[in-house]
């Protein structure tokens, strides 16, 4: 499979449509899941994923050197999805650089939840909170990397993550008691 993936990449670099389709088939589900976690709605995630693939193919054709194909593709998808959210929701103020430390909230140990409940609760959060939690919890970026992606100071990324986590815990707590 590694050899065929390398072959697909070479063919994509030459702009071959059948190779692009093969790459799309290999990675579409994973990139869609990444976009969905950031964007929040299936139709918009589909659009963001399509845009990400267009960027990926353009960069491959331009000869960009890539060490880790899947990691790089995921990074393109994350950035594309964040850009999509910013275009759709011009009021993107949660991710400004001006937040103070968050206030205290419910105790994490008191809340019992499943992964599915967490995913559903994250979808109900605002775009900024959903993005920072998705990048940290699901995409595996650390707060320093998230600060770079969102173009904020690391201290702001940390406080924004804490605030988003607290909102998520409040959302889960309301589900549990309501």
Describe the 3D structure.
The chain has 178 residues and is mostly helical. The chain is built from 8 helices and no strands. Helix 1 (2-13) crosses helix 2 (17-39), helix 2 (17-39) crosses helix 4 (69-88) and helix 3 (42-61) crosses helix 4 (69-88). The longest helix is centred in the C-terminal third of the chain and has 24 residues, at 154-177. The radius of gyration is 18 Å and the shape is elongated.
Quick check: average pLDDT? 82
Taking the sheet with the most strands, its summary is:
none
- Total beta strands: 0
End-to-end CA span? 49 Å
The helical percent reads over 70%
What low-confidence regions span 5 or more consecutive residues with pLDDT below 50?
109-113
- The number of distinct helices, counting runs of at least 4 residues, comes to 8
Brief overview:
Helices cover 72% and strands 0% of the residues.
Q: What's the arrangement of secondary structure elements?
A:
Elements lengths: L1 H12 L3 H23 L2 H20 L7 H20 L26 H10 L2 H12 L4 H8 L3 H24 L1
Helix pairs in contact: 1-2, 2-3, 2-4, 2-6, 3-4, 5-8, 6-8, 7-8
Give a quick set of tags describing it.
178 residues; mainly alpha; elongated
